[in-house]
Amino acid sequence: MAVQKSKKTPSKRGMRRSHSFLSEPPISIDIKTGEKHLYHHISPKGFYKGRKILKNKL
């Protein structure tokens, strides 16, 4: 079993736990449909930046 050589400093402990306080991902609204989606992702109906990308989506 691995055992640490010395105690972690509060600074290093904080760096290790820094991902614990991430905020929610930013949401974008599509120009044509008004749907909410993640930035750089297509909307549920297949639109990206106001253009239809996927034909098979509703």
TrEMBL record:
UniProt biased composition (Basic residues)? 1-19
Gene name of the record: rpmF
Q: Where is this region: Disordered?
A: 1-26
Q: What is this protein called?
A: Large ribosomal subunit protein bL32
State the family it belongs to.
Belongs to the bacterial ribosomal protein bL32 family.
What Gene Ontology molecular function terms does this protein carry? structural constituent of ribosome
The reply on keyword Ribonucleoprotein is yes
Entry keyword set? Ribonucleoprotein, Ribosomal protein
* InterPro entries membership: Ribosomal_bL32, Ribosomal_bL32_bact, Ribosomal_zn-bd
NCBIfam families (UniProt xref): rpmF_bact (TIGR01031)
GO BP terms, alphabetized: translation
Q: Which organism is it from?
A: Candidatus Profftella armatura
Q: Please provide, in alphabetical order, the Gene Ontology terms of the cellular component aspect for this entry.
A: large ribosomal subunit
Family annotation (HAMAP family):
Ribosomal_bL32
